[in-house]
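Final report, closing paragraph on structural work. Over the funding period we assembled a curated collection of sequence-structure pairs, and we close with a single example.
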Amino acid sequence: MGKTADLTTVQKMTIDTLKKEGKTQKVIAKEVGCSQSSVSKHINREAKGRKRCGRKECTSKRDKRALERIVKQNRFKNVEEIHKEWTVAGVSASRSTTHRRMQDMGFSCRIPRLKPLLNKRQRQKRLAWAQDKKDWTAAEWSKVMFSDESKCCISFGNQGPRVWRKTGEAQNPRCLKSSVKFPQSVMVWGAMSSAAVGPLCFLRSRVNAAVYQEVLEHYMLPAADQLYGGDDFIFQHDLAPAHSAKSTSTWFKDHGIPLLDWPANSPDLNPIENLWGIVKRKMRDARPNNAEELKATIKATWALITPEECNRLVDSMPRRIAAAIQAKGAATKY
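Its predicted structure, as stored:
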């Protein structure tokens, strides 16, 4: 972006605000997301009182308000659909003009964030859980082994429809996409502590209680020895049927391993969910051709996870809990 004309109205207002705060042009350019020359040209233009020359805008304020209403009615429409609806409303403008007006309003096309769907009872239980854990220290959380299964796909390019939103609207309910399940390809189980990650287990069949207990026996126990040695630890898993089965609870009692109570449908509270996200982002450039190549890619990427990344994620638990309390049990960003 090298021309002042390329700056959106929101960017120009942000530049003016940061300039008044005494920020340098280099810092402003970094925060706004444009070149330093664009910042300099805008500031100089404002100082000289120059106005942008060129053809007068073909759309009125009323037209712009109509466009904003159309976008907010359904934020998952593409530009072509929005343009058609705007022209049906009586506005004479090209598709590129429609796109520019949307950008001037501060709308950007983004991949929607995911949030689990929670009912009232689940929100209440999450809030009670967060209030119970709000005084836990980083040292206490370091004794927890977090675990979860995840599905990884051979193709990482298809992330679904995008959403039109402004800065600060990432958590707007109308800009969110409900998360259900990842498309099936390869199912993998993993565990982590604040110090490192444990070994991975690729699951070949549907995970029932018997299969899960095999995973615990052959992968979780070695991970515990690797991550904690002979020290005590608390194991965390979600409330999937295989995890909450009576036979699984008996397995933990027989092995003397305490469990961390966990609220239902709460991936946003589990740092290993973020770890899986890191792994998948690192795998975006990889293009495995089959399941075996995908497994090899996952293993190689998992091995690159550093202790610092694990420690940073587990250290975020107090902030996650504070966010859950502030949201009164509702889902938070993850």
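The radius of gyration is 25 Å. The longest helix spans residues 209-228. We thank the funder for supporting this effort.
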